[in-house]
Structures are given as C-alpha cells and as structure tokens.
Amino acid sequence: MTDIGFVRSDMVAAKPAPSSTTGPMAWARTNLFATPVDGLLTFLGLLFLFWVVPPLYNFFIGHAVPPGGTVEQCRMENAGACWAYISAEMEFFIYGFYDIPEQWRPNIVFAMGVLLLAPLLMPKVPFKRTNAVLFLVVFPIVSYFLLAGGVFGLKPMPTEKWGGLLVTLIISVVGITLSFPLGIILALGRQSKLPVIKTLCVAFIELIRAVPLITILFMASIMLPLFMPQGTTVDKLLRALVGVTLFTSAYMAEVVRGGLQAIPRGQYEAGASLGLGYWKRMYFIVLPQALKHVIPGIVNNFISLFKDTSLVYIVGMKDLLEAVKTKNDTALEWQSANTATTGYLFAAMVFWVFCFGMSRYSMYMERRLNTGYKR
Q1: What is the pTM of this model?
Q2: Which helix (H) or strand (E) holds 170?
C-alpha cells in the first residue's frame, strides 16, 4: 500500500458571488420582498409614494412661484407655494419691527454668534476656555448694547421692536446657556445632605414642573406687575427669558439627576480616597461621566426649549412664528390661496433645520465620547 497525497501549489482563483445574491434585484428580494407580507407592505408603500409625492412636488417646486415672482402669479389657478412672498417679507421674518437702517446691528450679532459658537462646537479647535468666556460672557453683553443701543451714539431700539428669528434665537441661546448650569446646580442641590438646600431645590423643581410653560409666561406677563411697586415695569423680553430659563432648568435638573444616579458609588469613594473635596470630585470625576450618560436627554431639553420659544407671544413678543402669523394677517397685498400656508411652511422648515442640527450634533458627541450607544 502506498500513500498518495495531493497538495495544491497555487491558490484557486476567487469566483464572483452568485448573481442571485448581488445587485439591485438581490437587494430588493432581500429587503423588500423577503416574505409575502414584506411584498404587500412594499406594494402599499409604493402606492402611497405615488399618491403623495407628485402633489408635494408640484406644490413645493413644480407649480411654485419662485423668489422674485409677483402676487398675480401666486393668485393664478393651480399655483403652488408662494416663495415670492417669503422672499419679499424676509426682513420682517428675521428682524421683526427692527428699523431697517439699523438692521446691520443684528447682522453683526448673528456673525459674532456664528464665529464664536462654531469653534466652540469643534473639539479639535484650541483655546476652548477663552472661547467659552467670549461666547458666554462677552458676547451677551456686547450683543445687548449693540441691539438695544443708547450707547456709543447708537439709536435706542426698545425690545418691543425686536422680533422674528432674532427673538427666537435670543431666547433660545440665553435659555440654553443659563438653564444648563442652573439645572446642574439644582440637581446637585437635590442630592445635598443639607436639609434646607435639598428642600429648596426639590420645592423649586416640583413647583416649576407642575405647571406648563405658558402658565409661567402668563404669570410673568400679567401677575408679576401686580406684585411690584406702582410705576415699576419689567421688560417683556426679560420676563420671557426668566420664565423660559427657570422652566427649562427644572427639567434639566431632573435629567442631570438621572445621570448622577447612574454613577456607581465607587466613583464617589474613589474621589474621596484621593483627598478631593466635594466640588473637585464633582467637577473632575462625577459630573463628566454623569453628563455623558444623559447627552440625549440634555439635547432633548434644548430642542424643546427652541420650539417652546413660540409661546412668548403670551407676553407680546413676536418670535418667528408670531411674525409669520402677523404678516399673514396684515400683508393684504400678498393675499392668495397659498400665501399663509407658505408662510407657516417656511417657519416649520426654519425650526426643523435648527432642531435637526442640534439632534445630529448630539449624536456626533455621543459617538466621539464613546458612550457605548450602538448605532
């Protein structure tokens, strides 16, 4: 008996995958028609798209009147969205009743905000501490005097003239900037071992969370002046800022408290074993981990705050949505079947852009901080 073996001296060339497993047909068979139920749902989905997409395309693009068009075109039969109306009234939607010759001042504020916020959101950009001080301290002061005027020869501009996207962004930025640290302090106070501090924080959080935002704004607008000395008035925008900040900080405190409770007790004990005091333990060990755990909840609060700015109409401020509503009601020269709808669609798109941007940035930060969320 002889041992006969065969060993290949070269590799077999790889063969292409079977045609039934690659290509668009294979993808459709796997993802759209894998089962009879999948096939039925795919068929119904296609019918829905054929029913919805053509009218939407005609309204937004096909039959729409582009910027620069006329009101006569918007009033034509089968006309779509009146983007010419949005283009013509864009200044009011952005600045409200702000005097047109003075609109360079909000433009400078917008530019400064972008120039300071963009590097602050980019992790690789250096000088974060300096950047944060400029954005959180210097920028609000400069913006207030620039917008309000009355100094350095600038024409005074009362807040009653502020409106549109300008007011929406001011309330959002101020509310987010102030409610975040205030929420952290409230969350730490709620876990404090000092009864007075804990009771005050719990009472504040539960009281604010027990009423809707519109009630707080109503109280600030109608009830607060009744308790103040006769002749004393508080600026409408300041009332809105205080109300929105307090409301959001209460919810932020609960979000942060959830993150603090997720930190194991060993982390606190490890900090104590190193000889760190309470604030150093919180600043260097506990809070970074706790905030990382609750990034989605924090951003969810910010998005809610941005959308809730529309409620400031209760104190007489004309934010973006109220500016669109006002112009829809008063711009008789632009009246047509789709003018009001186009205005509200424009407001919805602006809100969507900002809210979607915040959502995507939070997802980026989650991935960068490696919080372990699988996507």
Answers
A1: 0.85
A2: helix 165-190
